[in-house]
Inverse folding.
C-alpha cells in the first residue's frame, strides 16, 4: 500500500479530470482483461472507475480526495501495464494489478463501503479477494 500512497500523491486534480476523459475507453479496455485467477478484477476496476467518475464530475462530494487519487492511480497503473511483478506465466499477468486493486480496497474499505452504500452498489461482490 505504501507504493500506492506514494504514487497517488502525484495524482493532481487536473490528472483526475484528464482521466475522466479516458474513462469510457478504459472501461472497455478493462472488459478485455482475461484473468481467471483474479475473477473479481474487472468488477473491482469498474467500481473504482465509477468512483473516480463520480468524484471528477462532482456527483459525490463525500469522496475524500485521497481515495479518488488512489483509485485514479490504480486505473492508470492497470491501463499503462506497468508491472511490479514480472508476468512470466500467463496466470501471473494480472497478479500485480490485482494486488494494487486489493490494497486500495482493503486500506480504504470504510470510505469505499460508504460510497458503495450511497450509490446502492453491492459492496460484498467487490471484496478485496483476488
Amino acid at each position: 500500500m505504501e507504493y500506492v500512497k506514494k504514487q497517488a500523491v502525484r495524482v493532481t486534480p487536473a490528472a483526475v479530470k484528464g482521466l475522466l476523459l479516458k474513462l469510457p475507453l478504459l472501461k472497455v479496455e478493462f472488459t478485455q482483461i482475461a484473468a481467471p485467477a483474479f475473477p473479481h478484477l474487472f468488477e473491482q476496476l469498474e467500481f473504482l472507475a465509477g468512483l473516480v467518475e463520480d468524484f471528477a464530475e462532482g456527483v459525490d462530494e463525500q469522496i475524500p480526495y485521497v481515495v479518488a487519487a488512489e483509485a485514479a492511480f490504480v486505473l492508470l497503473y492497470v491501463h499503462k501495464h506497468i508491472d511490479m511483478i514480472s508476468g512470466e506465466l500467463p496466470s501471473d499477468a494480472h497478479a500485480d494489478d490485482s494486488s494494487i486493486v486489493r490494497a486500495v480496497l482493503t486500506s480504504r474499505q470504510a470510505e469505499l463501503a460508504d460510497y458503495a452504500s450511497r450509490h446502492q452498489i453491492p459492496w460484498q461482490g467487490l471484496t478485496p479477494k483476488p
User: Anything to note?
Assistant: Residues 82-91 have pLDDT under 50 and may be disordered. Residues 2-126 form one domain.
